[in-house]
Design brief:
Distance between the termini of chain A: 19 Å
Radius of gyration of chain B: 26 Å
Helix content of chain B: 10-25%
Number of strands of chain B: 19
Oligomer: heterodimer
Number of domains of chain A: 1
Number of strands of chain A: 2
Largest interface: A-B, 48 and 60 residues
Number of helices of chain B: 9
Helix content of chain A: 55-70%
Distance between the termini of chain B: 60 Å
Structural class of chain A: mainly alpha
Structural class of chain B: alpha/beta
């Protein structure tokens, strides 16, 4: 049953003001904080459903990256002789798997969060809450998959005798960066999906193309140096490169200026996504 | 008394023909953006363009005192649900301002946020969070919720295996344990069976009696009359009456009758344009007159105009007959013996049915058309109702001075049973006999 309530605030008197919002809106992060438990529950629901509905359930989180890794290793490493970076010391399976980890977090988020608003139209038209909670919970719902896949990476690294370095302390930062990118793009896509229904066809296409320009299956030095700046505009470049650097340290190239441009792009995408979403939020219930 | 809700100058505007005008696909948006300069050139003279607007709400202002139980009534499309959506912040107003003082809970539908794959227990937590409860609050009330719902044995069963009744009970149990200062309620009363409606009414009566502020949007005149102290009638997006519940509701019903007789001319057809739509409903007397009051001694004819777009042998059309209090007396459908089902042809059909003479008591009744595909889905689900009045003039005791209570008035035969119970089946003709019956011994 659709019941929503303002959570009790510190003061006994809660006053809600309802009026049209004009132009640029505030991000409303304080309100989002008040609804953190709803975010928690919706994330929890997304995770439960993911595993209840899929026959393979948890196994899928392991199989998906492993199969992709095997296919990529055979095609790119064995057939096409793609290297693993200027220092070249990494086994290709470990290299590509380390790229697939943040990539799958990102692409899984896009697929799940992109359609999330339309998929939850019953909630949006019946209950009020900050709509950010919906794509937010879809993105956060991808974390268990990520963690399960991460365990596989550890196994792989042990098997290929690749030792992590101290850079690994930065790994949480890059994971957050991956989430921030996923969130930013998901906000754009989910809001656009409400307005334009053909976004559902665009998302799989986008995910596919994006992967090819994100250094998942090949290292940056494969492409001509003069085009590197173009790739750095892709936020996922920084995420994936940062991931590998954090994991493999000196065996992999250190972050350069292209990396920082990419990180900057993450922030641009996230902030613009937040603002666009908040701006469109007021019409969701009328259109969804 | 302090003000709980203060509504001033609220307006909500929608674009008309939005589906055609809006760019539904990104492709259209891009095409239209690309061709926009040319269009502007072509229509250089007319600056207004083709977009027209409709105000679903216009200049709505009223205050609700704390502790007041207020009903919002009006025809479908009058704007009452839009008003509720504005008050619950689901949609933004185009103009005006609302101030709400106190914690708000809203109840627009039964079962929103429930997920079929999740168990009853999981849904309680999820739903509770969607309702606005905190985790600790749900934990504290969990046992009460389970007890109220009467489904404790099925707590760990996915709700997709629940019967409709269990599902609704669980959904309602969670909502019933919400504890807001201000409760905004939509047509939830129209969901579920009569017993459930009564439970809802009871629960809401409790809420209403507990000093909480309640704003109730409803078609159910009985519920509005029974629960609310004050009623606001909305017509064309604007409040047209505001006052004591009894008064406003009675005037509303009377006005409905005067305005159109017992004809329901629908501003837009009810139903699904790809299946069938109901375009009009008429209640007539045996002379073909639509203007009541109708005489209980004569049959009342019901005509439902149906436009069928796609043939389907499984269509059922019918109506709910409701008492003035909103109680469903009976739902009738075209679903008699299979060979007696009237088959609807593609195109226009008029279905006719007769409420027999002598069935109804004096009073106001509502008739809500329905249509569905047998065992599949609703097409029209009692969304709109037509009101009519009946005066009682069929045979009854000459000693009866006041209106007998209740909506039904068929004349029953009475006699004095002599000896054993087998006599009951063979009572002598005793038409107007008013002898008090003696129970068989």
């Amino acid at each position: 049953m659709a019941v929503s309530a303002e959570r009790p605030s510190a003061s006994a008197e809660t006053t809600t003001i309802i009026q049209p919002s004009k132009g640029w809106v505030r991000l409303g992060l304080r309100e989002l904080w008040r609804y953190r438990e709803l975010l928690y529950f919706l994330t929890w629901k997304n995770i439960l459903i993911q595993y209840k509905q899929a026959v393979l359930g948890v196994a899928w989180a392991v199989l998906n990256p492993i199969i992709t890794m095997i296919v990529f290793t055979v095609i790119f490493s064995k057939f096409l002789h793609v290297g693993t970076g200027s220092k070249g010391g990494l086994p290709y399976p470990v290299f590509v798997y380390a790229g697939l980890l943040p990539w799958n977090l990102f692409s899984g988020s896009l697929s799940s969060a992109g359609a999330s608003l339309v998929g939850n139209s019953n909630l949006i038209t019946k209950v009020y809450f900050p709509r950010l909670v919906i794509p937010g919970s879809a993105v956060l719902g991808q974390i268990p998959n990520f963690l399960i896949s991460f365990v596989v990476l550890i196994v792989l690294m042990v098997a290929y005798h690749v030792a992590p370095t101290w850079n690994v302390v930065f790994l949480p930062f890059f994971t957050l960066l991956a989430l921030a990118t996923a969130m930013g793009v998901s906000l754009w896509l989910s809001a656009l999906y409400v307005l334009y229904r053909d976004v559902q066809y665009i998302i799989p296409f986008l995910v596919q193309i994006w992967m090819y320009v994100s250094f998942v299956m090949y290292p940056p030095d494969t492409i001509p140096h003069k085009w590197l700046w173009l790739f750095s505009l892709n936020p996922m470049t920084g995420v994936i490169e940062g991931f590998r650097w954090a994991l493999f340290g000196h065996q992999y190239q250190a972050p350069n200026w292209e990396f920082w441009i990419s990180v900057l792009m993450v922030m641009v995408v996230l902030m613009s996504g937040l603002y666009y979403f908040r701006r469109m939020e007021r019409v969701f219930a009328d259109l969804v | 008394m302090s003000t709980a809700i203060s509504i001033s100058g609220i307006g909500k505007r929608y674009m008309i023909g939005a589906t055609q005008k809006r760019n539904d696909t990104l492709r259209d948006a891009i095409t239209s953006a690309a061709t926009a300069p040319f269009r502007r050139l072509r229509h250089a003279g007319s600056s207004t363009g083709h977009v027209s607007y409709m105000w679903a709400l216009k200049d709505v202002s009223f205050d609700v005192e704390a502790g007041q139980v207020i009903g919002i009534i009006g025809r479908n499309g009058a704007g009452k649900s839009t008003l509720l959506k504005v008050l619950t912040r689901i949609t933004q107003p185009t103009a005006g301002r609302v101030e709400i003082h106190g914690r708000v809970g809203s109840l627009l539908e039964v079962g929103t946020g429930f997920h079929q794959e999740l168990s009853g227990r999981e849904n309680i937590y999820l739903n509770g969070a969607i309702l606005g409860m905190t985790r600790t609050e749900i934990g504290r009330k969990f046992d009460d919720i389970v007890e109220f719902s009467e489904i404790s044995e099925f707590l760990d069963t996915p709700v997709k295996r629940y019967s409709t009744g269990m599902y609704v009970r669980l959904a309602f149990a969670v909502a019933a344990h919400l504890d807001p200062e201000i409760l905004l309620v939509d047509e939830v009363l129209s969901v579920g069976d009569v017993a459930f409606q009564r439970k809802c009414l009871g629960q809401m009566g409790e809420i209403a009696g507990s000093g909480r502020t309640v704003l109730l949007v409803s078609h159910n005149m009985g519920a509005v009359r029974g629960l609310c102290t004050r009623v606001v009638e909305i017509e064309g997006g604007h409040p047209v009456a505001d006052g004591r519940a009894e008064e406003v509701v009675n005037n509303y019903i009377a006005k409905q009758l005067q305005a159109e007789g017992a004809v329901l001319n629908l501003p837009r057809p009810l139903g699904r344009s790809d299946e069938l739509v109901i375009t009009a409903v008429r209640v007539l007397d045996d002379q073909g007159k639509t203007v009541g009051p109708f005489h209980s001694s004569r049959p009342i004819v019901v005509e439902i105009d149906v436009d069928v777009a796609r043939g389907n042998a499984a269509y059922q059309v019918g109506f709910d007959l409701l008492s003035g209090g909103g109680l469903v007396l009976r739902t009738w459908h075209t679903d008699g013996p299979p060979d007696a089902w009237p088959q609807l042809a593609v195109g226009h059909n008029t279905l006719r049915s007769v409420i027999p003479a002598g069935l109804l008591n004096e009073g106001s009744y509502a008739l809500a058309p329905r249509a569905d595909v047998y065992r599949s889905h609703w097409i029209v689900n009692g969304d709109e109702a037509i009101w009519f009045d009946v005066v009682k003039d069929h045979l009854e005791s000459p000693f009866s001075w006041v209106k007998n209570p209740g909506p039904l008035a068929p004349v029953l035969d009475w006699g004095v049973a002599k000896g054993d119970a087998s006599d009951v089946g063979s009572l002598s003709e005793s038409g107007g006999d008013v002898t008090a019956p003696t129970p068989p011994r």
